[in-house]
Specification:
single chain; 573 residues; mainly alpha; 3 domains; four-stranded mixed β-sheet; 6 strands
Length: 573
């Protein structure tokens, strides 16, 4: 049964990628449709692929820290607290302010947050389709589906800032390409919108500056001179929103939170070996995720070997796209295909830093979700150059098949297997996610035992706490703050965080000068988790930081409740 279901899923994905494998009667019917109808059909195919796993994803496990702080951070803003000044935040303010506005309108709810994440994935997929439309619908649709399948796996529908930034960046390129068309009715307006979208991407993730900058610069030189100024002004006006953010949060705190902490202080505890280790997954979360049976019906390399091969496919895919775009630029300097592919190739190339700083499945997905998608038009171009007598549809099929082989045979575990698994969960198959709830708020974790323990702690704290009392959530050993269950802050909105480290990272919260020990001395409630005690990676996170916070807990806190995985403490002296 499992083989049948997964095979059917693979076949269905393959079918929508190229009509060349459809029966001749079906191809004839499609070819008789109008251009607008065929565009609509492609959009419906992409929409169906986007929506297929949604029902399962709405109840799927969430990353306890990452999704937890994307629920908690925006609510802190609504309560008058600011990123960098009042709580640690490593990225730009864009995603937090967007979510804060959404929560203000619709309430702080995990379904609301995940629907925002769905929109972000949709922005990448539909933006990719619109951008690559000059290469034909087959290629544009295939590229959109590849981007979707790769990017939706790592965090599901969690509204992470990186996915939002990618969506804005890809849409910026698509709108910019539309502004370059000779028949564009409002080219200056479109150019300005492209600039605004590129600037908004930087508000989400300032570390996208090289990618967004190169892509926008290349697009600017594709535009006519009257359109260049609106592009630049749109981008600058949007990026200027950093000014009120920095003034509110403080210049020093903002510089520290967006530059010093993520670039210098965090790297030693989050970096992984380059290249990845062949016979062992370096990332702790990748090893934990591999414990779940894969259900994959085909032979595949070991998980660590897939990550190793995936890492080398990153520069290979980027170089392939750059070469094809450069070649196209020489042959067709003024074509719409060059306008689409050349800026996108530069944008994609600059994403490689994500793979280099931490080559785990998540960061590799964040890069190849774009570079693999662009490989489809790139390979098609090279095939057409080598075989000019071939029909365009044949080249499209060959290029799509090349990426399909990689996803099915070389690195199936994370992108394609995960997507098929998530789609199956929408229909009740092999569901994965256990609920923790309180007062209408829910969060989902992967372990039923962990959910039971967390629910017990939640119920106990609900009975004993009073609104306005503070809470800190961390690992059992506070000298190793590698990860934490930040979703508890979301479940208890009436208990203000007693620490600025709602998100806990190695080298930051456990540093000797972090101030965590002083925060514990002034805090009321403490939840410690043993879930992350086995955290081990080949970096500084395997060591220990300051022991002072542990001593403060020992001297000033009393244990109120205890489970296998969580403990509840109250400051008692």
């Amino acid at each position: 049964m499992a083989v049948t279901i997964y095979s059917a899923g693979l076949v269905s994905i393959g079918v929508v990628l190229d009509s060349a494998i459809w029966p001749s009667v079906m191809k004839s019917k499609i070819s008789s449709l109008s251009e607008q109808t065929r565009d609509l059909l492609s959009v419906l195919i992409i929409g169906a692929a986007l929506l297929l796993p949604v029902w399962g994803l709405l109840r799927y496990q969430g990353p306890p820290m990452e999704e937890g702080f994307m629920l908690a951070f925006p609510e802190q803003i609504l309560l008058g607290r600011l990123p960098h000044r009042d709580f640690l935040h490593l990225y730009g303010p864009g995603s937090l302010w967007l979510l804060a506005g959404v929560y203000k309108l619709f309430g702080t709810n995990i379904v609301v947050e995940r629907l925002v994440g769905l929109v972000q994935h949709g922005a990448v997929a539909f933006g990719m389709f619109a951008l690559l439309k000059p290469f034909g619908r087959r290629i544009a649709t295939g590229s959109a589906l590849v981007a979707l399948v790769i990017l939706i796996g790592p965090g599901g529908l969690s509204a992470m800032a990186w996915n939002g930034a990618l969506g804005l960046g890809v849409c910026s390129l698509a709108v910019g390409a539309a502004a370059c068309k000779e028949d564009s009715s409002h080219p200056k307006v479109l150019a300005a919108i492209a600039g605004v979208l590129a600037g908004a991407a930087l508000l989400f993730r300032p570390d996208l500056v090289i990618a967004a900058g190169l892509g926008s610069l290349a697009m600017m030189f594709r535009l006519s001179k009257p359109q260049r100024l609106p592009l630049v002004l749109g981008g600058l006006a949007t990026v200027a929103l950093y000014i009120p953010h920095v003034l509110l949060s403080g210049v020093g705190a903002s510089f520290e939170g967006m530059f010093l902490d993520p670039v210098f202080r965090l790297r030693a505890g989050r970096a992984l070996p380059v290249p990845p280790t062949w016979d062992r997954a370096d990332g702790f979360l990748q090893r934990a995720g591999a414990l779940r049976p894969s259900g994959w019906p085909l032979p595949m390399p070991e998980i660590s070997q897939q990550i190793f091969l995936w890492f080398f496919l990153v520069p290979a895919s980027i170089l392939l796209v750059l070469f094809a775009a450069w070649s196209l630029r020489k042959q067709e300097p003024d074509s719409s295909r060059t306008t689409a592919l050349w800026p996108a190739a530069l944008f994609s190339a600059a994403l490689i830093t994500q793979a280099l700083q931490r080559p785990d499945s998540t960061h590799l997905s964040w890069v190849t979700g774009i570079s693999f998608a662009l490989c489809i038009p790139a390979i098609a171009l090279l095939v057409q150059q080598a075989r000019p007598s071939w029909e365009v549809s044949r080249s499209a099929w060959v290029s799509t098949a090349c990426i399909g082989v990689i996803l099915v045979v070389v690195i199936p575990f994370y992108p394609l297997r995960t997507y098929v698994d998530l789609a199956g969960q929408s229909f009740g198959r092999n569901t994965f996610g256990s609920e923790i709830s309180r007062d209408g708020r829910s969060f989902y974790v992967g372990s039923a035992e962990s959910a039971t323990d967390a629910q017990q702690i939640t119920d106990q704290l609900s009975k004993l706490s009073q609104p306005g009392e503070s809470i800190i959530v961390g690992p059992t050993d506070l000298s190793r703050t590698n990860y934490n269950d930040a979703f508890f802050y979301f479940l208890f909105p009436e208990l203000p965080p007693g620490t600025r480290y709602i998100e806990m990272d190695p080298g930051l919260a456990d540093a000797s000068d972090s101030g965590l020990a002083d925060e514990l001395l002034n805090n009321d409630w403490l939840i410690l988790s043993d879930v992350w005690s086995a955290w081990s990676e080949p970096n500084a996170s395997s060591g220990s930081g300051s022991e002072v916070p542990n001593q403060v807990v020992k001297d000033h806190y009393c244990k109120i409740s205890d489970t296998n995985m969580f403990s509840l403490y109250r400051r008692c002296r």
